[in-house]
Amino acid sequence: MSLTPDQQAEIDALRSTPSQTLRVVAPGAEKHLYSAVPVLDHGFVRVIDYMGDDAAICQAARVSYGKGTKSVQNDEGLIRYLMRHWHSTPFEMCELKLHVKLPVFVARQWIRHRTANVNEYSARYSILDREFYIPAPENVAAQSVVNNQGRGDTLEGEAAARVLELLKADSTRAYDHYQEMIDESGLGLARELARMNLPANIYTQWYWKVDLHNLFHFLRLRADAHAQYEIRVYAEALCKIVADWVPFAYRAFEDCRLGAVTMSAQMVTCLQRMLKGEAVDEENSGMSKREWREFQGMLGN
């Protein structure tokens, strides 16, 4: 993990001078404040601020003030009801602000979730560090033959070694040329132009603030086993943070979203026929080949 000395000094200062507050605090979130969680080879995620907790979700759902006479058990039951029935607005009462360091190509996937506030490190004003994501050998894989946007089998031997050699060499050469172009005593090119020569595996940083409803949507897609590894590991790090911050809401999310499946009408009909003892196969299912494969995966076949 690559925190700069200034960032580490800021973290140390903030953690050594806690502030008093009248607002409700979530102990699980407090322990993550300003602590950087390493991700990939140079990346990290750290919590800068948060708002709300499990009780805030229930308060918003009941449109009342304070905890009233409701028990903790009732709160958890209410949250599970809201999650099961896709009631989103109570979860929007909680927010999380993060500082994330990530490769540019991961950031371009991440930014497609257009439901957050983002402020990214500017390469127009600042010089990017010489830090590139180079995958571990076990994450160097061939193109999938069944999924045009995914990985297939892991590359091994000379092929894997050559890929890593090319990545390292190209990254180094691109950054050397970047430095040469912006050198004021040399070419003196504007930083906003020189940055276009940098590869997509260079690291960037941003502050990302999102409400819990939209964060759950992000995690449902990016913590999924089918998500690209390089963004999935960020989502998995966030899952651990959210589980500590809002444990009731996260358990409901884990059960009703991460661990659940969504079936089409044809899938439900086929399942009903199977339960009645009928023989159902791809030909008489009424599904496409891909949908049938997904249905079989849901059934564990």
How many DSSP H or I helices? 13
Q: What is the total number of structural domains?
A: 3
What is the CATH first-level class name of the largest domain?
Answer: Alpha Beta
Strand adjacency order, main sheet:
1-2-3-7-4
Stretches with pLDDT under 50, minimum 5 residues: none
Task: Please report the distance between the alpha carbons of the first and last residues.
Answer: 40 Å
Structural class: alpha+beta
Instruction: Give the overall silhouette.
Output: flat
Strand content is: 5-15%
Mean pLDDT score, rounded? 90
Name of the CATH architecture of the largest domain: 2-Layer Sandwich
Number of strands: 7
Largest sheet: 5 strands, antiparallel
Order of SSEs:
HHEEHHEHEEEHHEHHHHHH
Instruction: Report the C-alpha radius of gyration, rounded.
Output: 24 Å
Please estimate the helix content.
40-55%
| CATH topology term of the largest domain | Gyrase A, domain 2
Protein name: Flavin-dependent thymidylate synthase
Function: Catalyzes the reductive methylation of 2'-deoxyuridine-5'-monophosphate (dUMP) to 2'-deoxythymidine-5'-monophosphate (dTMP) while utilizing 5,10-methylenetetrahydrofolate (mTHF) as the methyl donor, and NADPH and FADH(2) as the reductant.
Active site: 222
Binding site for FAD: 89, 112-114, 120, 211-213, 217
